[in-house]
UniProtKB/TrEMBL annotation:
Membrane topology recorded in Swiss-Prot or TrEMBL: Multi-pass membrane protein
Record-level Gene Ontology MF annotations: amino acid transmembrane transporter activity
InterPro entries on file: AA_transpt_TM
Protein name per the record: Amino acid transporter transmembrane domain-containing protein
Transmembrane regions: 34-53, 60-81, 110-133, 154-171, 177-198, 264-286, 306-328, 349-369, 375-396, 408-432
Organism of derivation: Brassica campestris
Domain Amino acid transporter transmembrane: from-to ranges: 31-426
Cellular component aspect of the GO annotation: plasma membrane
Family: Belongs to the amino acid/polyamine transporter 2 family. Amino acid/auxin permease (AAAP) (TC 2.A.18.2) subfamily.
Keywords associated with the record: Amino-acid transport, Cell membrane, Membrane, Transmembrane, Transmembrane helix, Transport
Subcellular location: Cell membrane
Gene3D superfamilies per the UniProt record, alphabetical: Amino acid/polyamine transporter I (1.20.1740.10)
């Protein structure tokens, strides 16, 4: 006869489980409105990468550039829809985290090994990039506002930028950062508008050229790959989408996918309003002479560019928090569930300060992170955004061969793998070129 485990033990366990879930950042508050998902998605999606889109266009050229931009918009909207649908496909269960969905599709162990490394590369990578971007924009703001000041090293500006996060990262969950996120989403629309409107008012430059800038064929090809990586990076918001949806309340009659999808559609319209005008107008005005940050090409009027840089700083503050939250969640889950730490405020204080300090230090050490972006962009952004949702969809729903769903998923998978293989090549070359003239902590 099998001895039954005492019921009290089980109740105690599930009570502890509930208590832990109520403490963890992603599952702790489920009362978000649909518009929370809209601005969380805008903040996660529209990175400072939008300012590099005209440059990516100059590397891709008109035809391929427009094709890749529009295709990416359609494909990522489709994969985002898949993620929203799959959040609650098992009745009574919610996949609150990307890796839980992966585990459902590929099995407990394999799901973790496939999803978690990629998700961590993306989220930590973005946090480091944003440390550098925030620091650079602050420095730009300082240099524009105060011409004759003593120049201050970028390293110190990154520290100043990080100081904000030592405070903000102690906000417990997604809903508590919705204010920060709203400000960030408004800022992203604002500086995108400044970027393209200021370009329009400047008018097409006299000696504008639209050909490829590189002298050699090899250079052109590598730049093309690198441009693909930049575009892939611009559309990477999928790593936090399930985590955002986890904050929306859900009942069997009104599942969370309704309000979430509404938010996503609004977010994607905003993304289109940010991306397409900046990319196409910026390239049209400056041609292949455009800087890898369009605000650098628009030198005057100084006050406007200074304002735009400040907007970038505010946006990046919000984005950093959104990408850091799932990492905090993973770290805290590991400590509390696996290593049996008590869920206390002190634990959270230590964990989050450590993370902010680590990303700050890495950002100060490797500020040529833009090149690293195309590199990481290919490795981790392309899979998690373009084709991992499709593979999971095929694994779970098993659509009929050659049906519309089957074709759509395979097209996305092929396009995504193409991005994943090609863009790191371009990124690596950029890093090699930039690293030649680089001094540590300069």
């Amino acid at each position: 006869m099998v001895s039954q485990p005492p019921q009290d033990d089980y109740d105690e366990k599930s009570a502890r489980q509930k208590e832990i879930d109520a403490w963890l950042p992603i599952t702790s508050s489920r009362n978000a409105k649909w518009w929370y998902s809209a601005f969380h998605n805008v903040t996660a999606m529209v990175g400072a990468g939008v300012l590099g889109l005209p440059y990516a266009m100059s590397q891709l050229g008109w035809g391929p550039g427009i094709t890749v931009m529009v295709l990416s918009w359609i494909i990522t909207l489709y994969t985002l829809w898949q993620m929203v649908e799959m959040h609650e496909m098992v009745p009574g269960k919610r996949f609150d985290r990307y890796h839980e969905l992966g585990q459902h599709a590929f099995g407990e162990k394999l799901g973790l090994y496939i999803v978690v490394p990629q998700q961590l590369i993306v989220e930590i990578g973005v946090c480091i990039v944003y440390m550098v971007t925030g620091g650079k924009s602050l420095k730009k703001f300082h240099d524009l506002v105060c011409d004759d000041c003593k120049p201050i090293k970028l390293t110190y500006f990154i520290m100043i930028f990080a100081s904000v996060h030592f405070v903000l990262s102690h906000l417990p969950n997604f809903n508590s950062i919705s204010g920060v996120s709203l400000a960030a989403a408004v800022m992203s629309l604002s500086y995108s508008t400044i970027a393209w409107a200021a370009s329009v008012s400047k008018g097409v430059q006299e000696d504008v050229e639209y050909g490829y800038k590189a002298k050699s064929t090899a250079g052109t090809v590598f730049n093309f790959f690198s441009g693909l990586g930049d575009v892939a990076f611009a559309y990477a918001g999928h790593n936090v989408v399930l985590e955002i949806q986890a904050t929306i309340p859900s009942t069997p009659e009104k599942p969370s996918k309704g309000p979430m999808w509404k938010g996503v559609v609004v977010a994607y319209i905003v993304v289109a309003l940010c991306y397409f005008p900046v990319a196409f107008v910026g390239y049209y005005i400056f041609g292949n002479g455009v800087d890898d940050n369009i605000l650098m090409s628009l030198k005057k009027p100084a006050w406007l560019i200074a304002t735009a840089n400040m907007f970038v700083v505010i946006h990046v503050i919000g984005s950093y928090q959104i990408y850091a939250m799932p990492v905090f969640d993973m770290m805290e889950t590991l400590l509390v569930k696996k290593l049996n730490f008590r869920p206390t405020t002190i634990l959270r204080f230590c964990v989050r300060n450590f993370y902010v300090a680590a990303t700050m230090f890495l950002g100060m050490t490797f500020p040529f992170f833009g090149g690293l972006l195309a590199f990481f962009g290919g490795f981790a952004f392309a899979p998690t955004t373009y084709f991992l949702p499709c593979i999971i969809w095929l694994a779970i729903y098993k659509p009929k061969k050659y049906s519309l769903s089957w074709w759509a998923n395979w097209v996305c998978i092929v396009f995504g793998i193409f991005l994943m293989v090609l863009s790191p090549i371009g990124g690596l070359r950029t890093i090699v070129i930039q690293a030649k003239e680089y001094k540590f902590y300069s």
